[in-house]
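From the pipeline queue, job 12 of 40. The input is one protein chain; the requested action is below.

Action: predict structure.
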Amino acid sequence: MNKAVTAIILFCSLLFGAEEGALSWNFKDEVELKKDQTARYQIAIDNKLYTLDFRWTLFINDGLVMLYKLEKFPYQNILYKDHKLNSFKIVLKNRAENALYKPYALIVFKDFDAKTKKATLSLFIKDDKRSVQAERVLPKAN
């Protein structure tokens, strides 16, 4: 019985565990950044334009020190490749009428190339109630 339950849990985690598997994202993008190179996104929600900037400043002990700013408010996080520590969530807009459906962005640390000294990050944006328009401004998409 224990082996059957373990097998079912393992199968479900493989099926739905990927960040793209279980959710349908409104916006997805992957960006490769050098140290202190800024990624800037313009995000339109409910006819309001938000600017999200993020960059990394230090890679030490397998940790990527991230700085990000939504509108005027700066924040700092440290990301690792470990699944539990590889991402952070940013609430884009507070909807008091239904707090469960706040639009948010998820920044995921994918990889760090020690030779080129570039970090690969993914940005996912989700809003269950409305459509979200987003565009990468910096660095320009190829």
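Job complete. The first strand starts at residue 27 and ends at 34.
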